[in-house]
Amino acid sequence: METIFAAPSTLTLFDEAATVRALAALAQPQRLRAFRALVVAGPDGLTPGVMAEKLGVAPSALSFHLKELAYSGLVSSEARGRNLIYRASFGHMNALLGYLTEHCCQGQPCEADTALACKSCQ
Q1: Domain CATH number, residue 71
Q2: What separation in angstroms does the CA of 92 have from each of 52, 70, 77, 89, 99?
């Protein structure tokens, strides 16, 4: 079964396979740190060199991890001059979160904006 979630500027199709790919990509400490760094960087993104320095990882290792994150759809890259700029795909991230919480609160609508709100549904 496929679910469509609308993000502010994109429409992302999410299904079980896409969810597993995204979660598998995040299930490794270096990739999780890289993704979080891109989320913090916002729409400006980061170059691999800056990320490698911030995260204290070898550029070659970071390249491997960024490729996995890109395959999952959680990050995108854009060539800018001689550099690549990586950005978190916020629409994809929000679609993943939406898919994971689609039936929270026993299928009833709720305001699950915070962890506290979700706990109150239980």
Answers
A1: 1.10.10.10
A2: 23, 11, 14, 5, 10
> Can you give the pTM of this predicted structure?
0.76
Distance CA 47, CA 87 (A): 9
In single-letter form, the type of residue at position 44 comes to D
Sequence-separated contacts (24+) of 101-105 with Cβ below 8 Å: 102/3
Give the pairing type, strands 75-80 and 11-14. unpaired
Mean pLDDT of 108-114: 60
Q: Give the chain's domain count.
A: 1
- How far apart, in whole angstroms, are the C-alpha atoms of residue 48 and residue 50? 6
